[in-house]
Design goal:
One of its GO terms (molecular function) is sequence-specific DNA binding. The chain has five helices and six strands. The protein is an alpha+beta fold and 164 residues long. It has two domains: 55 residues, Winged helix-like DNA-binding domain superfamily/Winged helix DNA-binding domain (Arc Repressor Mutant, subunit A); 77 residues, Lrp/AsnC effector binding domain/regulation of amino acid metabolism (RAM) domain (Alpha-Beta Plaits). It is elongated and about 55 Å long.
Length: 164
């Protein structure tokens, strides 16, 4: 039995890019199909022992390559309104992003190129709740404008981005 390679960073790639071997990629794909799949079953699928799979998964988690989380459906939990909000700002975008990240209802914050500086996704209980969140966003001193895109119907959502 060979010792699993450590997750290594490729100096020729973007900073922080992790280079995965084929076995690690297969382990990730197994977990993407079922995040609760036992390590023994994954080991059988990829040709490793349960302990070797456990070690590799821990390395992948520690390196920030993946997370294993429960994904909920907001609609079944009483959150009837989802929206993407585009924000135009001036000043330090990282500072604005930090302030936005502190708002509990915002679950996604990304700095963008183009006509909008930052995009955030919100999950809220009602249109009134959405208005309250918009008020919090607009109260940030360097926010100049917002544009709200209310989700009418979720057509596709996937978390399987692959491993290249």
């Amino acid at each position: 039995m060979t010792t699993p390679p450590k997750v290594r960073r490729d100096n020729d790639s973007r900073p922080g890019t992790v280079v995965l071997d084929e076995i690690s990629k297969k382990i990730i794909e197994e977990l993407q199909s079922d995040g609760r799949k036992p390590y023994a079953a994954i080991g059988k699928a990829v040709g490793l022992s349960e302990a070797a799979v456990r070690q590799r998964v821990q390395r992948l988690l520690d390196a920030g390559v993946m997370q294993i989380v429960a994904v909920t459906d907001p609609l079944t939990l009483g959150f009837s309104r989802q929206a993407m909000i585009g924000i135009k700002c001036e000043g330090d975008l990282e500072e604005v992003a930090d302030e936005l990240s502190a708002i509990a209802e915002i679950d996604y914050v990304v700095l963008t190129a183009g006509s909008l500086d930052i995009m955030v996704e919100v999950v809220c209980e009602s249109d009134q709740h959405l208005l309250e969140i918009l008020g919090k966003i607009r109260a940030i001193p360097t926010v100049r404008a917002t544009e709200t895109f209310v989700y009418l119907k979720l057509h596709k959502q996937t978390y399987s981005w692959g491993t290249r």
